[in-house]
Amino acid sequence: MDVNLDLDRWLAATRLVVCVGSGGVGKTTTSAALGLYAAITGRKVMVLTIDPARRLANSLGLKQFGNEEHQVDLARIPEAKGELWAMMLDSRSTFDALIARVAPSAEARDRILDNHVYRHMADTFAGSQDYMATEKLHDVVNGGRYDLVILDTPPVKNALDFLESPGRLVNFLDERVLRWFLEPAGRGIGGALLAGTTAIVYRLLGYIFGAEFLDDLATFFRDFQGLYKGFVERHDRVVSLFRAETTSFVTVCAPTEPSIDVALFFQEELRTRKLPRGGVVVNQVHLCDGRSHDARAVLGERVAAIAADVPEPIRASVLARLGMAHRRLAALASAESALIVRLRAGAAGGGFFQTVERQEADVHDLPALAKVGRRLFRPAEPI
Ligand SMILES: Nc1ncnc2c1ncn2[C@@H]1O[C@H](COP(=O)(O)OP(=O)(O)O)[C@@H](O)[C@H]1O
Ligand SMILES: [Mg+2]
Q1: Atom of ligand 1 nearest to the CA of 283
Q2: How far, in Å, is the centroid of ligand 1 from the Cα of 57?
């Protein structure tokens, strides 16, 4: 049997799971449920998350900031044989840590971290959580402390941009800025011209921002030039990590038209980028039992027996509403089925296909996560 159709075997052969999908569909929930399931079966798991709902963050014991690896207390899950760890990505400290790692010396590191230009740029890049996710991932995977890492990717609109984000940073520094500032002056005619232009622009910038800022800027770019190689190497390593045999991308979606369109898009992107596709999870599927919407026919006698003291018109009205709610639920379930059929056809060949029902309440504590995990790992079907 294809390894991807037996989810337990699939997970056993996987060391990095990357969950992708649009926001609000249950990507963070699925990441945490996968992680908990693996921890129950004895693995040492790290879930790297970005934006857990507050109550889920509380159950995982996650604090808002700090990039700290934190072990989740599994006392409420006595059958757990392994360990579950979680970390919330905090962009700013990830970026500072990155500088500290690639800086050639302690002096260079401090100079960059204290530099005004750096502080401003770090704030700008701190907004790009996708870049930080890949940065931290590189660390956690290479640290070798976990035998399974699950990355809950940020809800980026632009599909798999986060894969390219280290490259984007490198390109930004390389082409647009670094060269302009650092091209040695006097190299041929272009160099002389550049030196002239640079001198004028420098003076202009100095006039606008002040000499101190200019000094900061020049120092920053000089220091950053030394880091360039480090960035490129890390980027290459992250990209090969994503392509590794033990890596698997899981596309998570909800049974709604926009979410399924995004999921199909992801499946296609993964395929063309030759990234390993683990499978598709359709989360929050509505179930509807029974065909009849006539609540009076189905429940009338029982309601009359248990609520004999309630006046008949009230009983009738409650039953009528119940029937209407059931009819709506049936219509929703049937519309969702049609969407799921479309997704399944479009995602063919992309690994397992699994659905998880919408639970009665939000999934925010460990027992609820464990339940979702069990649903995820029931026998899957091929796409
Ligand atoms: N199968 C499910 N049944 C019920 N509620 C769910 C389910 N999956 C997720 N949720 C709830 O939906 C909300 C969004 O889930 P979340 O995992 O944070 O989405 P995302 O990470 O994709 O933005 C949360 O409140 C979560 O508890
Ligand atoms: Mg999320």
Answers
A1: 1
A2: 12
Ligand 1 centre from 130 Cα, in Å?
Answer: 20
Q: Which residue's C-alpha comes closest to atom 9 of ligand 1?
A: 26
pLDDT digits (tens, 9 = 90+) for 231-250: 677 777 877 888 899 999 99
Single out the residue of 325, 251, 317 nearest to residue 281, CA to CA: 251
The C-alpha atoms of residue 72 and residue 39 are separated, in whole angstroms, by 10
Nearest ligand to the C-alpha atom of residue 25: 1
Element containing residue 27 per DSSP (H, E): helix 27-40
Give the position, in ligand 1's atom list, of the atom nearest the Cα of 360.
4
Taking only the tens place, the pLDDT of each residue in 166-213 is: 555 555 554 444 444 444 443 433 444 445 556 666 666 666 666 676
Ligand 1: which of 22, 31, 49, 363 to mutate, judged by most atoms within 8 Å of the beta carbon?
363
pTM of the full predicted structure?
0.79
Amino acid at residue number 227: L
What phi and psi values does residue 278 have, to the nearest 5 degrees?
-80, -50
State which amino acid sits at residue 288. Answer: C
Question: In ligand 1, which atom is closest to the CA atom of 372?
Answer: 1
pLDDT tens digits for 30-69? 999 999 999 999 999 999 887 777 788 888 887 655 567 8
Best residue for ligand 1 mutational test, from 18, 27, 28, 29 (most atoms within 8 Å of Cβ):
29
CATH class of 3-287+341-382: alpha beta
Tokens standing for 104? 């050639």
* Closest to 41 measured CA to CA, from 74, 1, 90, 87: 74
CB count, 10 Å around CB of 349?
9
Return d(Cα 180, Cα 190) in angstroms, integer.
12
How many whole angstroms from 27 Cα to the centroid of ligand 2? Answer: 5
Which residues, given as ranges, of the chain have pLDDT below 70?
A: 1-5, 63-67, 90-94, 121-133, 155-211, 213-214, 217-218, 220-231, 381-383
What pLDDT, on the 0 to 100 scale, is given for residue 237? Answer: 81
Calpha distance 253→21 (Å, rounded)? 6
Atom nearest to 21 CA in ligand 1: 22
